[in-house]
Amino acid sequence: MRVLLTAGPTYEPLDPVRFIGNHSTGKMGYALAEAFAAIGADVTLISGPTNLPDPAHPRIRTQRVETADQMYAAAAALAPTADVWVFAAAVADYKPAHVAAEKIKKAGDTLTLELVKNVDIAATLGKTKRPEQFSVGFALETNNEEAHAQDKLRRKNFDLVVLNSLRDAGAGFRHDTNKVTLLDAQGESRIFEVKPKAEVARDIVDAVLARLPREV
């Protein structure tokens, strides 16, 4: 089994010093890479900027990127030959329309930035997904959680969505634990209580294996 897995944040530069980013640590994605490798899968981990070391497992190849455009290019190159796609990265939705060549100096009381939409990696690749390929997405929400997750499931051609909420204690960014709900394209859902991210990763891998076509 060949697995394409994105993890961590993306950093969208404003100038040589500053960027737009988010609080993702990459822990969930890295735990998933280890869990897939543990069952014998060959994993390509496309990682945004994190403080985590590259996984040492021999079945995991780590490719470091910074921006959404770089992550998309790396994922698009690998997607056609991967059996399973897992989009665990917290990709910035927008990027600066213009990147300053020099550090933006402080002047005046306000600074107005023009932002443009980034490529939606999962949705764009989802249009090319073949029936025998399996795609997993993540939905980190703060309200109307299940409705937003179901929308992502349909709109991005996912087979499985991992939903978590920032309203749940011990879930989301900067935690070593997570609480998730798995929703699949057949309308089934299952809630898992808070547990270490390594255990959550094994639950997700088990859910993927149970839904994969037999020939994968």
The SSE string, one letter per element, is EEEHEEHEEEHEHEEEEEH
Arithmetic mean of pLDDT: 93
> How are the strands ordered across the major sheet?
5-4-1-6-9-10-12-13
Structural class: alpha/beta
| Share in β-strands | 25-35%
Number of helices: 5
Features:
globular, 216 residues, 8-stranded mixed β-sheet, alpha/beta, single chain
Please explain how this structure is put together.
With 216 residues, the chain is an alpha/beta fold. It is built from five helices and 14 strands. An eight-stranded mixed beta sheet has the order 5-4-1-6-9-10-12-13, sandwiched between helices. The longest helix is centred in the C-terminal third of the chain and has 15 residues, at 197-211. The radius of gyration is 17 Å and the shape is globular. The model has no long low-confidence stretch (mean pLDDT 93).
